[in-house]
Write a structure and sequence with these properties.
elongated; mainly alpha; single chain
Length: about 475
């Protein structure tokens, strides 16, 4: 915009300097060849010697096609490009054509659609972040309230125990005094009064304790609802950020710009750094992805387990297994119920050919989140395409793949592609081809080529086999090289 403004200013200044032709101006009705495009005005008074080179140039220019065109016809004055060259000055090349003021060339429909998509994605990410921020504040308030109520319950229970102890002592004293031949009835009456007061106090404490327990149960239910909302927000965030390859590289290039804008606007938002880090990872720019994941980890906060899980997955893809396992351990220490940690650790285990451990981690992630489609897809893919026979189960693979498709509303090419692989493992090659064709229709970029290649396998009644060791630094690459049965 600044460049366009400057070009317009220069054009206006050049036009203001140009002489306006008048009826008495001999140049008003004709143009010369050389220097005809010069925007410089002629000097106020040119000497005969200074005018001679210009005349010579004009004579030479008369041999050019432009000069042969003759003088301009009609009543209209000549354009600025038809003004004579300044006497004694070299001719200047014409300026580059300028677009109309304030108007830029319209973007292509595809570029406009991509830009609109990225703006919508960024807006959705911001909304999710704001909801998450509000939810975390609600979590903090509820946890503080729950802790306060819990302390009050503990105090009330301790007070009740003390009252019961005093009551037991008074009861024993009264019983002993009653057995004495010379019992003191006045003392017994005093103790009875004290016991009655303790009994009333115990009843009040019990009533307060019941109210506190009801309040604590209410807080616990609110926390449960907030946790369910957090799970939904996390799933929504994962769907938008798409760390596992739902989008092709071209979309990720555009996403980088959107995520960079988000990082600039909210540098203390770990989700922004994670989003851009996943995009870099998709594009194979691992060092930049690691830098963003480091930034997310350094921000700490409630999302630190997500950040550590992502960094651990990336470090493993960079063949830094020891550092990756350290991150997974830290993530579980921060939040042992974060399914994302088990998902990334399971993928790392599969890449290390520890298929039983991978299945165990995928299963844990599934149990922790009833709406985690990606955990179900990875489990289905491992059960359908593991190179080791004993870890495959076509029937279960179909079940998990169907759940993944349902959770993604049958609109995810990756989930449909996995369902096709599961059907092929179960020997249902006709269904496998049907689902593979649907996956091809939804897939884009390199993913589409992969889906097509697998479709040809199923048409040839060949199930899919994946070598998980071939992960290439892409979070969606569960080793795509097929292996014949």
């Amino acid at each position: 915009a600044e460049l366009q403004s400057e070009r317009e200013r220069l054009a206006q200044a050049a036009q203001a300097r140009s002489p306006k032709p008048s009826a008495g101006d001999p140049a008003a009705g004709e143009s010369t060849g050389a220097g005809a495009d010069s925007p410089l005005p002629p000097p106020a008074a040119a000497s005969e010697e200074a005018a001679k080179p210009a005349a010579d140039d004009s004579a030479k220019g008369s041999e050019s096609p432009t000069a042969n065109a003759g003088p301009a016809e009609g009543p209209n004055p000549p354009t600025k490009s038809e003004q004579p060259a300044a006497a004694g000055r070299p001719a200047m090349p014409p300026p580059a054509p300028l677009p109309a003021a304030g108007i830029s060339p319209p973007p292509s429909a595809a570029a406009q659609q991509s830009a609109d998509l990225q703006r919508q994605r960024l807006q959705l990410l911001r909304q999710i972040y704001e909801q998450r921020h509000d939810l975390l504040e609600e979590f903090a308030d509820l946890e503080a309230k729950g802790e306060s109520v819990s302390k009050s319950i503990t105090n009330a229970e301790g007070e009740l125990i003390a009252i019961n102890g005093l009551g037991a002592i008074l009861t024993a004293k009264m019983a002993a005094e009653q057995l004495r031949p010379d019992r003191n009835l006045s003392l017994i009456a005093t103790w009875a009064g004290e016991y009655a007061a303790l009994d009333a106090q115990a009843s009040a404490v019990k009533l307060g304790l019941e109210q506190l327990q009801t309040q604590y149960a209410s807080v616990a239910e609110q926390l449960k609802e907030a946790d369910a909302e957090a799970v939904q927000l996390r799933s929504a965030w994962l769907a938008v950020v798409d760390p596992f390859g739902q989008l092709d590289s071209g979309d990720k290039d555009s996403a980088i710009a959107a995520f960079t804008e988000w990082v600039t606007l909210e540098p203390k938002a770990p989700w922004a750094w994670l989003a851009r880090g996943f995009a870099y990872w998709q594009l194979g720019r691992l060092d930049e992805a690691l830098s963003d994941f480091n930034a997310a980890v350094n921000l700490q906060g409630p999302m630190v387990s997500n950040s550590l899980a992502a960094r651990g997955g990336l470090l493993h893809a960079m063949h830094k297994s020891k550092e990756a396992m350290t991150d997974f351990g830290k993530a579980l220490k921060a939040n042992k119920t974060d399914g994302m940690v088990y998902l990334f650790r399971g993928r790392a285990a599969a890449a290390d050919e520890k298929y039983q451990s991978a299945q165990r981690d995928f299963k844990t992630a599934i149990n922790l989140d009833a709406k985690d489609a990606e955990a179900r897809r990875n489990m289905a893919l491992l059960l359908a395409a593991c190179p080791k026979d004993r870890y495959r189960n076509g029937k279960k693979a179909v079940e998990y793949a169907q759940e993944a498709c349902e959770l993604t509303q049958w609109k995810s090419s990756s989930a449909l592609d996995t369902l096709a692989a599961a059907c092929a493992e179960a020997g249902q090659f006709d269904q496998a081809c049907d689902w593979a064709e649907k996956a091809v229709a939804l897939a884009r970029g390199a993913n589409r080529g992969q889906c097509l290649a697998r479709l040809k396998q199923y048409q040839a009644h060949q199930p899919l086999r994946l070598d998980w060791r071939n992960q290439s630094g892409n979070p969606s690459a569960a080793a795509e090289a097929p292996v014949s049965r």
